[in-house]
Amino acid sequence: MTKFLIASRHEPDDCLRALDEELAKGPGILDKFVYGCKEGDHTGYAIVDVKNLSDALAMVPGFLQASACITKVDKFTPAEIKSFHAKAA
Fold this sequence. Notes:
Layout: E1 2-9, H1 15-24, H2 27-30, E2 34-36, E3 41-50, H3 53-57, E4 69-72, H4 78-88
């Protein structure tokens, strides 16, 4: 599995449409997202573990897929950071 960060922005007038489309994908998908809409940031955010970029994109409402920002993300261990410093020296 690969970890992706999803940021899916929508216009204020599209809040219900975005939420309805997420809900239609199933409650498991809706549970993965958090939204900034109540604070004026009309964006859905999620960090998901999926097979590939296509699977991450499929979680985004169809009308927002073209503008969604999806980034593969990774964590670093202390050992990796130490290794980076050793290589940079």
